[in-house]
Amino acid sequence: MQKRDFSLHGAVDLAARAAAAKKQQERAAQAGGGGREARYSFEATDATFSAEVVERSLRTPVMVAFVVENEPSCDALVADLEKLVAEGGGSWYLATIDIEVNQQLQGYLQQMRVQRLPFVGVVVQGQMMPFLNSVPPEAELRAATAELFAALKEQGLLGEAPEGAEPLQEEEAVDPAHAAAEDALARGDFEAAAEAFREVLAANPRDEAAKRRLTLTELTLRVKDYDQAQVEADPLKEADVRLLQGDVEGAFELLLSVVRSSAGEEKNAARVHLLGLFEALPGDDPRVAKARRALQAALF
User: Could you give the CA distance from residue 186 to residue 46 in angstroms, rounded to a whole number?
Assistant: First the structure.
């Protein structure tokens, strides 16, 4: 299927947006009488994203599909994902976001440098990671999803919700500073998000999730000022872009290659930069452990 080009900064037809909003209200009014998949999939909005997606992801992964109403490729992908989430039995959830209606959430697309829809990310412990920016056949999607959640399970991040779990009934107290930061991220205000995460860390320096989110937010602010020529000329900047696009191992290996092949200030700059990127992932992430070993070998 042909994907639809999508500009994050383009104007949205107001009539189309109003129509989409009306349809969203109609679907919301019909919710609750659906089948088994309705227990685990839902529509998120600008107003509900923090509570329904970010907070829930602290316990159970949430896959998020950013779509456009009545776009055939988007509809096909969501239909396939709804089948898979129903089969998951509550071990993960699916949130669908109509980006023409919920424009504040374009901040996440900017953070992932997304230019086309549909786009699918997965939110784990409050952190969104890219998953898909294409519409694969159902068999390929099933295999990719199984691989993703197998990796999350291996890292102890996959939920074990009971078969009858209802996503909208879950409630858990969340640090309001985290909520403020996520709200700022959703509307694309990365400066405010960074400041909110700093406030969280000032109150609790051991908040590892806030440390990772602050690192990613500051990285996003940095990358926003890059142009293509800079990225092509500077491996440190290219590594930043790769990490934000989800190519974690590629980002690490690029910096390791600089460490191995350079000396003096250039070598040290790549080493320091790599250590900074490690902060964007959990300390027990196997990719971080592997890169740390490689860094030690390259230095000594």
Answer: 7
